[in-house]
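Workshop exercise sheet. Pairs work together: one partner reads the sequence aloud, the other fills in the structure field after running the prediction. Swap roles for the next sheet.
Pair: D.N. / O.F.
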Amino acid sequence: MKKEFLPYYISRLILSIVFPILVWGFTWIASLMAIVFFGLFLLYLHSGWFSIDLSTPLYPLRVDSHGKEVQRKALIFAVTFSLLLYTFAAPLSNFIGIPLISGHAALSVGIITYFLAQSSLFIKTQVQGHFSNQ
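Structure field:
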């Protein structure tokens, strides 16, 4: 951990603790999610996917044109996937007689899909850039 990122670390640690407590209460799931969220914040800071501007210590990450394109693709994929899931889950549940997913769960799956798609697109670009530089 770098000293110059201390305000970012502290603010994200607080967010990582408060949000899971608000959603899951004081449970082991909240503790696990706090660790996951803080780990993701650290990944975003140290991954090299974003430029860093220390003039704003609480919000040092900056998105370039490539980052905006990755975020746009991830958003399109996540919205499309969650809408398809929401649209076809109820009829499919009725057809097979097993409840599959609710509307709230479809939204949660969409949010998770966004972050997974964004991360995979950044990783894919990073790996391709690494091999093209050799």
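Discussion prompt: The mean pLDDT is 82. What would you look at next?
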